[in-house]
Amino acid sequence: MEGAGLTIALLDSGVGGLSVLRAMTAALPDADILYLADFAGLPYGAKSDAELAGRLVGLQRRLAAEAASEAPLDALVVACNTASTLALEALRAEAGFPVVGTVPPIKTAAEMTRSGVIGLLATAATVRRPYVDRLIAEHAARCRVVRVGAAGLVPLAEAALRGSPPDPEAVARELAPLAVAEGLDAVALGCTHYPLLAGVLAAALPGVAHWIDAAPAIARQLCRVLAPRLAAGTDGVEGETPRRRFLFTGPAAGIEGLAPALAGYGFAEARPLGRADSLPPSSPAAASR
Where does substrate bind (predicted)? Predict the structure, then answer.
């Protein structure tokens, strides 16, 4: 029973965190999952630092309260690069549980490149953070790093999970600065939405040998911070199906379109944060409430 008895929350501005969930549940398949998609806050990059930090701390409190009705949170994964580069310290200062952030996999890209030319594909808010400057200085100083703020990929990924295939021309426009970078052979995906478009990205730039997703590293770090809890044993019941709850902020309209994707990740229902009644994603009523 890997992770049985644990309750782990994921927080993202939308459905990008599902790419992280995939790696997490491979490592801890028996953990209960509480996922919060902050649709009402999307896009995070458009908010001031103070506004976003305050919002994230408030959402963490509400997630902890939501979980406490059944079992206390054992960990929170902030499955968003923009949020992580800004608010991790504030979140950790308040939380009574481990908080794991998302770091652009620049170090891995620098280790994997053979040409010395790597890309950082992220939102505009992430690529300009001083934190990213430090990552590049520490781990990729020998490389030429092409930073691309491609916020347009986020709505394309969100729409793809709702059944709308990405427009190849729209993807090509977002990737244009990488397409003209001579020698580019590795790209660090600095937004959790982007691995959801992995096949589309690879098709758009077939010369890139490595598209690097941070999710496996996040899952490993989660296991490390939970190691004492796992070693001590948990209260899980053998054979019990782990519970997965999908919560969201903002209006319910559009949730129905996510039903097939959510079901594929083990979510049987979705509901607004703070509401006790569930909205089955496959129900027509879900889109009208």
Answer: 12-13, 44-45, 81-82, 192-193
